[in-house]
Amino acid sequence: MASNEFPGWHGTTIIGVRRGGEVVIAGDGQVSLGQTVIKGTARKVRRISPGGYDVVCGFAGSTADAFTLLERLEVKLEATPGQLARASVELAKDWRTDKYLQKLEAMLIVTDGENLLVITGAGDVLEPEHDVAAIGSGGNFALAAARGLMETDKSAEEIARSAMAIASDICVYTNGNLTVEKISK
Length: 185
Description:
Elements: E1 9-11, E2 14-19, E3 22-27, E4 31-33, E5 36-39, E6 45-48, E7 55-62, H1 63-79, H2 84-97, H3 99-102, E8 106-111, E9 116-119, E10 125-126, E11 132-135, H4 139-149, H5 156-170, E12 179-184
Antiparallel strand pairs: 1-4, 1-7, 2-3, 2-11, 3-12, 4-5, 6-7, 7-8, 8-9, 9-10
């Protein structure tokens, strides 16, 4: 395999669910290298507290790229404490215009308990409809499951866990080793 064809380390399937005054972000533990599972217990959901304000972040895509973005987001949040939307837009602007950042292959779901945002490398900061966001290889499976579960009386955490279980049954790049972080405003 030529060096420019290296498939990269990929972490996949993150879901964010907002319901009843709380937001839950859940991520599976699988890291894949091409078609091989390299690790099944990765932690792709993190709580950070820049400027004393808690933010929960989940990432999918190339692991090293995602950590680079998390570090950049933390710097933006330190510059604008308590303003997740503003920091996210600033990160997305940098991501779109900086030649180094443009090469990063990852996506983020972030929340401060009030906002639930998806940040993409195309310069997008999206607030999802229906209070559910999902990214990664199994993201569409988890999103569809969660959207259906929003019609039930389940809590945000129960919806996230059930949706991830469904995604892990369908997507070969998703497993059931979950990291779940809850935050409320």
